[in-house]
Structure formats: structure tokens, C-alpha cells
Amino acid sequence: MDLRNTWDQWPDVNGRFGEFGGRYVAETLMPLILELEAEYRKAKEDPAFKAQMDDLWTHYVGRPSPLYFAERMTEHFGGAKIYFKRDELNHTGAHKINNCLGQVLLAMRMGKTRIIAETGAGQHGVATATICARFGLKCVVFMGETDVERQKPNVFRMRLLGAEIVPVSSGTGTLKDAMNEALRDWVTNVEDTFYCIGTAAGPHPYPELVRDFQSVIGKEARAQILEREGRLPDAVMACIGGGSNAIGLFHPFLEDESVRLLGVEAAGHGIETGEHAAALNGGKPGILHGNKTYLLQTDDGQIVDAHSISAGLDYPGIGPEHAFLRDTGRAEYLSCTDAEALEAFQLCTRLEGIIPALEPSHAIARVGEAAKELGPDGLIILNMCGRGDKDVFSVAKALGVDM
Amino acid sequence: MPTSRISDAFARAKGENRAALVTYIMAGDPDLETSFEAMKALRDNGADIIELGAPFTDPMADGASIQKAGLRSLANGTTLRDTLQLAARFREEDQTTPLILMGYANPVFRMGYGEFASAAAEAGIDGTILVDLPPEEDGELREEYAKHDLSVIRLATPTTHEARMAKVAEGASGFLYFVAVTGVTGAGSADPKAISGNIEMAKRVSGLPVCVGFGVKTGVQAAEMAKIADGVVVGSAFVDHAEKAHESGNFSSAPRGMGALAQELSLAIRTIAKP
């Protein structure tokens, strides 16, 4: 079988990546997601849609993001050359806006006037609120009650941008509950509302949509490394929560079998403690939020809360394409604890003058080992998917610094 | 024959020129013993079919009442096997009242569709409603159910247009559950006039009895729905009695309150003679 064709064919017509993915939603939502899929197929073929995306990517988001040779990190580890894909330089400070822009443009094509979103740390919420402000759309963001308290600056940013924040106290008041509440809102307001999902999960076609919009990361990185080094990298690395930045980086390299794909999950206090967010390394297949994928759950199929120092990785599931890439062995999934991420956060800040978000700090924590393994002739691209300004308060607290 | 328990229940109601009363409670809320007493009270006060909620941590189609009921039940440690055991206990002393397990896909998927189907049939369950398992995704489950004559009961909603209704009806059996409002359980209330056309279409396309639920709480509302549907489903209003019992610590108040509500609903439905 020709793997080039094999990797590109997913998801299949049923929205599946192998056995993962699918459309596990209440019947009320079925007509909506089928309509969304049909509209997306049309938009993909429409040059005007692509032209509008490209224009906003260039002039509003600031794409392409640079590919930067992290010289001092490379020296520090003494192995492969390490490049950073600088998606933290995007407008709003993370990769999230790539996807929000695409989804909101789709929503407008469909005549929807009200955009809802879930958010954990607030990055997806801020990106969604930003695009909604740009186009004058009503925006409602669901956020776990505890996160509203912990992420006050982002809550204020969203409000400044005109979004309504709905604190979610149901369930355990975390990101998964915010997603449940967004789904409940959507089944209630089917006529005018578009659900802008922030990660590469949810019912088909969301994992495909989000992947396609985020693939701009990998497409740019692939072209940039070919120009800089004249060859493909040996490995590409990204952190994984739901997995949107990672799938965006990985997907354009799937056909390049020589390129290793390394995802890094959040191990929290350690996978053995049970307090982590590593669905692939510590979970089992199950069904939640519209898709079949790896989930943190009990033997009775009840969902277990995730834990990570990084609110952006604090989710008990994972995008279905990652579940598929793991089971097929095409991608490898490592993990990194809270403590290791904190170390990496400080290391990168001091060596490169770049304050990374806690999310990519997880990938940074594993990049040294990969670099040493590949040796000085190797090439690695790491996705710097967000900047750390939002995290300085929680890092200070973790380091025992009183601000 | 489990499917015949469901069709017999609708036949009995039809024989009395009325709609069937379908009642929902959450298994294990406020505890399993009380649920067992509640099931008997519902049956004794006019419930034709009992839906037994299986708790799930992330009930995305449920409103506040049933969400909280599920969390109370989970806090008691209720598992899917406990819910099946509760059904089996009721079935020992009642061989006619249909029992429908209602919940979400993951606990059933985790147990394994084959193992669940045989355990459910063994426990005397007649069918299931798994909210997040639409026709596109329940093929494997249906194969297992066919071995045990279990019914796949599907949901249709105001967004289900005629072409979609054919898909919803494909492979469905027992009855069709028409969700009266676009929304979650317990929220808002439906205007029977607004949905009567949808219900007619659902009956015609599916050829199954059509029950209406979501937002039906009182006798007056139930009677209105009984005019246009083959059955009326009430859930959150029953679950609220379990909440009160949980809060007061007086668990025996739950079967009493639920029985009284079932009687009110049953009498209201009986005032509506069907042509």
C-alpha cells in the first residue's frame, strides 16, 4: 500500500481516523454538523474563501511566522540543531487564532450570527473573541468557574473584546464542563449559533477542520526548513492537550516517513500518581464530546479530571487523529511533568530570550533528549505555539515568588 | 420476548384510548434502595414504561436537574452494573413493565457492546436510549442487540427533517422518543402546536409509537402532549423529588412524591380520550 495516499485519506466518509473520531452527538446536533461538513467542502473549493483567509493571515494574524534557529538551546544540549516555529508571535499570542479565523469565516458563510466557544486558560476564548470583534459578531465564551478565577487577565481581555463570559459551575467546573455547557447551549440555540471548537477534537468534521486550519503551521515550517537547510527535518515536536498545534505541525509531514513526529503530553504530578492530562499515555479508548478517542476514565467509563500546571493541556481527551497516529505508530507520544515543564520554561527564557507558554514548555522539556539522540547532524523543529506572558503569575506562584 | 413488553404497553394504552406514561428516574439517586422503591411506586401509580437513567460524569444533553442527579448517584458509587442489577431486582417481581436504560455511550462502550447487551437482556431491560449514539454510530451495538431482542430507541428532534427522520427510524424499534424542544432536559416547555406536524411526520416515517419528552413537568402539560403523541415522557420533575429527598435526608419521601406525581400525570393523560 502506498502510505502517501493512506495518510492523506483520513478522515474517511464517516469522519473516522481508523477506529477513532466519528459523530457521537445528540440527534439535535446531527443536522447541524452534517450541514457544517457540506459547507466546509464548498468553502475548500472556493478560491474567494482561500483568498480571504490568506489576506487575514498575512495582514491581521501576521503569518508566516518565522522559523528561528535556537542557537543557544542547540549549544546547551549539544545535539541536533533546534529550530523554533514561532507561532507565539501571532496576533493574540498563540496558534489558536489560525483556527478561529477559519471557523468564524465559515460561520459567516453559513449565515450564523452568534459564536460560542469553550476555553480553559482563555487563549482560545481570547482568539475567538478577537475574531468576533473584528467581524462584529456576538461572542459567548464558556469557562470553568475555577478557570475564571485563575485566569483573570484573559477574562478581562475577552470582556474588553466584547465577549460575554459564562462561568460554568456544573460538573467539576473545568474545561471539559465548559465544553459540555457549550454543547448544551448549541442544542438550545441551533438556529443562529456556531460552535467554534478550539482543539482538534469533537464530532466530525471538527477534527478535520481544525487540523486543516492549523496545518498552515506545518506547511510553512516545511517550506522554511527546506529553504534554510535544504532538507527535511529529522523530527518535529509539539505539546499535546487536545492536540491542535501538534496536528497542525505534524500533518504536512505525515507523508515524509523519514520525519519523526513527537508529541509531548502533560504528565502533571506524574502519570503514576493518576494526576495528569496524558490521555494517550495513561488513558483508554472511549467516547466523549462527539468523538471516539483515548480518554482518562475509570473502568466504569466515567471521565476522570485531568491535571496539569498548564491550563491549555488540562483536558481528559485527545484529538482522534492523534489516537490514530499513536496506534499506527506514525507518531510517538512522550510526556513531561509539571516540574520538568517549569524547568524548561526558565531554561528557554534565559537561553533564548523567549518566554514560552507553559504548554510548549512541555515540548521544550523533551527536546534535549531528542536532540542528543539525533546527534549534531540532526534537525528538529519545535512548535513554539504560545507565549508565556499569560503564565507569569502561575509560574511565580509555583516558584514561590510573591509578586 | 423483551420487545413485546414495549409493544404490549403501547397496545394496553391504546386499548384504553390514551397515551402511555413514560417516567424517568436516575438509578442510585438518592440511593439504589430508594430507586427500587421508586420504581414500584411509579408502576403502582400509572407509569406504563420506566426509564432508568444510568449516571455519567458528562451528560451533555441534560439540564441542571438530571446533571445533579447523575453526580449524586456517582457520588454513591453507582456503576453501570449496579444499574443493571437494580433493573434485575425489579424484573424479579414485575414481568410486564418495560424497562428502558437511558444514558450515554461511554460506560456501555467501556463494558463492551456484546457484554452489555447480554447483561442488559439478562437483567430484564427491554431497550436503551443512548443519547450520543446516533444512527451513524450504533451499528455495532445494534448487531449485539439483535441477538437479544433488545430495542434501540432513538431520539428525533425539531431539527430532524423528513429525510433525516428516515435515517433515525432505520433499525430503531420499540418507540421513537421525540425531543420536544431544541435544548436540554428539564429546560423550557414545548408548544404542542409547534411540534404536532413533526410528530405526525415522525409517526408516518417511522411506523413506531412516538413519545414526547423534554420540558414536560405537570399534568396539564402532559395532557396537552397526550393529544398528539402515543406517549408522554416526564423526567426532571421526578428527579426533583430525589433531590429533595437527598437534601432532607428523608429518602422515603422520594418514592412517595414520585408516586403522587405519576398519579397526577396518569390521571391527566386519561382525561384525553384518543380517537
Automatic annotation (TrEMBL), chain A:
Pathway the protein takes part in: Amino-acid biosynthesis; L-tryptophan biosynthesis; L-tryptophan from chorismate: step 5/5
Keywords, comma-separated and alphabetical: Amino-acid biosynthesis, Aromatic amino acid biosynthesis, Lyase, Pyridoxal phosphate, Tryptophan biosynthesis
Native source species: Hyphomonas pacifica
Full protein name: Tryptophan synthase beta chain
SUPFAM superfamilies attached to this UniProt entry: Tryptophan synthase beta subunit-like PLP-dependent enzymes
GO molecular function, one term: tryptophan synthase activity
Reactions this protein catalyses: (1S,2R)-1-C-(indol-3-yl)glycerol 3-phosphate + L-serine = D-glyceraldehyde 3-phosphate + L-tryptophan + H2O
Pfam families tied to this protein: PALP
Function: The beta subunit is responsible for the synthesis of L-tryptophan from indole and L-serine.
Name of the gene: trpB
N6-(pyridoxal phosphate)lysine sites (modified residues): K96
From TrEMBL, chain B:
Keyword GTP-binding in annotation: no
Catalytic activity of the protein: (1S,2R)-1-C-(indol-3-yl)glycerol 3-phosphate + L-serine = D-glyceraldehyde 3-phosphate + L-tryptophan + H2O
PROSITE patterns in the record: TRP_SYNTHASE_ALPHA
GO molecular function annotation: tryptophan synthase activity
Superkingdom, natural source: Bacteria
EC numbers on record: 4.2.1.20
Coiled coil region boundaries: none
One GO location term (cellular component): cytosol
Catalytic residues of the enzyme: E51 (proton acceptor), D62 (proton acceptor)
Keyword entries, A-Z: Amino-acid biosynthesis, Aromatic amino acid biosynthesis, Lyase, Tryptophan biosynthesis
NCBIfam families to which the protein is assigned, alphabetical: trpA
Family in the record: Belongs to the TrpA family.
Protein name from the UniProt record: Tryptophan synthase alpha chain
Originating organism: Hyphomonas pacifica
Lineage, top ranks: Bacteria, Pseudomonadati, Pseudomonadota, Alphaproteobacteria, Hyphomonadales
